[in-house]
Amino acid sequence: MSTTLLPTTERALLRRLALEQREGRVPSLIAGLVRDGETIWVDTRGWVDGEPATSDTQYRIGSITKTFVAVLVMRLRDEGRLELTDRIDDHVPGTAVGDRPVWQLLAHNSGLSSESPGQWWERTPGVDAERFVAALDDSQVRPHPQHVFHYSNSGFGLLGELVARHRGADWFEVLRDEILTPLGMHRTTTSPIAPRPRGWAVHPWADLVQEEPAEDAGAMAPAGQLWSTVDDMARWSRFLSGETGEVLHPDTLVEMRTPTSVDDADAWTAGIGLGLQLSRYRGRRLVGHGGSMPGFLSTVLADPAERTGVVFLANTTAGPGAGLATDLLDILEEHEPRIPEPWQPSGADPALLELTGAWYWGPVAHVMRVLPDGMLDLAPWRGKGRASRFRPNGDGTWTGLDGYHRGELLRVGRDSEGRPNHLDLNTFVFTRTPYDPDAPVPGGVESWR
């Protein structure tokens, strides 16, 4: 089912998938790879009612559901209907975390319990929103400091209710209208629509299986209710890489991909953004989410820098993990590394050339370059230190996009003849020569000696 890969690459990918399915004793397993906006490989092992799964077979995707809810919340923010610093009580009053800001729920920093009140919500029928909200009392708040990561399924149940109240409709209706339909993800639903496998638990000491229940989670559905396919999840991987269409502003997605805390203690290789799981793996910066529900496991990851992504779906309670996903990315990189596009002139505005070249922050040399997209890049000459890109504001000023100077304003100072002679970057003054006496260096300038 590949479109562009070499036979040797396909075989290596299939072998890795086959090993995972056999050694992990997974009833059925399907995976796909994305590169440059296309699904370049899909393959499957195992059986669904005696037939191989296809890219249209629905599996439960569990907590990947949370990434959709997070996007719905950020859309509300972008429309001005809420601020991330708003208290939860401003939107869904009556819970023990009503004084916590919205962003803390998105980032799993609120201290709310990991699971909902009552029985194990993933295997029992859910309750309605009114009963769910009322049950989020003091007993559901954990003693962790609010700035510490503590994964909370309940938090996303609460965010789903926030979305529903703002839109005056069920959270999934909002999701369908605002995200799924515009992106063409028509096989992502709250209840399964055939073809779909049954969810199995595999006995740990014998080759036996037991069917898992699949109940409607009610108010907890925003935490993990969705079913989807490899095709739809491949599209979602592309979304996470930046192909947001008209659904979300790309800058908002970058904001969601920015780490808020670390979730793997001393290793510092995994973290959380706003509703998105983040990881660093062999120089890659990956974004996405894993999912598990009784009888099902799933993962969707994207590498925005490389415009690649990976998806897998399985119908087993335990087994495949993120290692399968990263191994598939490794095989793609090893067998078919990306060939860089040829360099060609970008047609940047020649007027920006006067800003390029050497600038000095005190005695420290920096270099300003014009990027192909018309932005500026200011970085230390020797590569160590504070570097940032800057986007034009249309009035001669520039705003930092990343690094130490994210969000800070860059102003260009000029001499009496209109030539740039200093940069004012939030009180840091950069000059054409070290501590140029003709520039307004804070504290004044003495002679070199």
From TrEMBL:
SUPFAM superfamilies: beta-lactamase/transpeptidase-like
InterPro entries, sorted: AmpC-like (IPR050491), Beta-lactam-related (IPR001466), Beta-lactam/transpept-like (IPR012338), DUF7586 (IPR056008)
Listed Pfam families: Beta-lactamase, DUF7586
Domain DUF7586 residue range list: 349-432
Domain Beta-lactamase-related: 22-322
Top-level division of the source organism's lineage: Bacteria
PANTHER family membership: D-ALANYL-D-ALANINE CARBOXYPEPTIDASE, D-ALANYL-D-ALANINE-CARBOXYPEPTIDASE/ENDOPEPTIDASE AMPH
Protein name: CubicO group peptidase (Beta-lactamase class C family)
Organism listed in the record: Halosaccharopolyspora lacisalsi
